Amino acid sequence: MDKPLTYIDLKKDLYKVLLGFFLNREINYSYIVSVAQNTPTTCVERMLFEEVAPVYYLYFRNMLSSAWVDWDKEILWKNIREYQEKYNEKFSFYKMRHKYLVFYFRKKYQSQWIELKKQLEALKYYRKAKNMEGMVLTDIDLCEALSDMFIDSETNFIYIAPVANRFPIEHVKKVYFEWVAPVCYPNLCSPIPSIWMGFDRDELWKDIQEYKAKNSNLDSFGKKMHKLSLFHLRNTHIVKYQWKELEKYMNTYKNNNA
User: Fold this and answer.
1) How far apart are CA 180 and CA 195, in angstroms?
2) Which residues form the DUF7079 domain (predicted)?
């Protein structure tokens, strides 16, 4: 019986397929995605440009594409570890060269990375969408997903979009701007946001209901001021930007097949 692959084994495999990204050959995106599918996209990007690319330039840039297939991943792993030890040394000129190489490869392979990232995110989107088939989603599920756009960490739109796409776009827009944003936006206004792992589902729903009830009983002047505050919030940079990004992801994957 085969032993399960360890984290290090998986990382070595990923290093090898990412090395193929830079060789003078057509990039096999589907092969890279098959190996990288369970690795966060940000980690893949870091491994590609900050770990593999500099080592490729120093050791493998003259290697034939045909030799890459049979290349020993242990040697690649060893070269990467040795390179990291060198540029981590204090006052080493490797630090300066490393920064230049990372910048150079990011610029040179920007379009190829965008394509790889798109395919990685598409796979993750369809996986989540597939897992939700048959599930009945309600407004509380939508609010919970949208609230992740207001936590103190990078927004993972690829996991929010499948939930949002189960609702009419106008309803998602209303829930985002008129329910979730007013309740959750203050978290981002704090110098040190207290919520960075995610809002508590039940507490969030309770706060939203209290917010809606409070504003439903306003007099005419209060309602005008409330509309004005919502208008201001809607045009706040981060709120507007996050919506545009979510809308882009929703439009990209809605009604597509895996």
Assistant:
1) 14
2) 11-118, 140-248
pLDDT in tens, 218-251: 888 988 999 999 999 999 999 999 999 999 888 8
- C-alpha pair distances (Å), 182 with each of 51, 90, 138, 228: 41, 47, 20, 12
Residues 6 or more apart in contact with residue 157 via CB below 8 angstroms: 245, 246, 249
- pLDDT tens digits, residue range 168-184? 999 999 999 999 999 99
Cα–Cα distance list, 140 to 36, 55, 136, 203 (Å): 32, 48, 11, 11
- Measured between alpha carbons, how far is 46 from 36 in angstroms, rounded to an integer? 12
Name which residue leads in pLDDT, 182 or 159.
Answer: 182
Contact (CB, 8 A) for 32 and 115? no
Residue 170, judged by CB atoms within 10 A of its CB (0-12, 13-18, 19+), counts as exposed
Task: Tell me whether residue 80 is exposed, middle or buried, using C-beta atoms within 10 angstroms of its C-beta: 0 to 12, 13 to 18, 19 or more.
Answer: buried
**Residue 199 exposed, middle or buried by CB count within 10 Å (0-12, 13-18, 19+):** buried
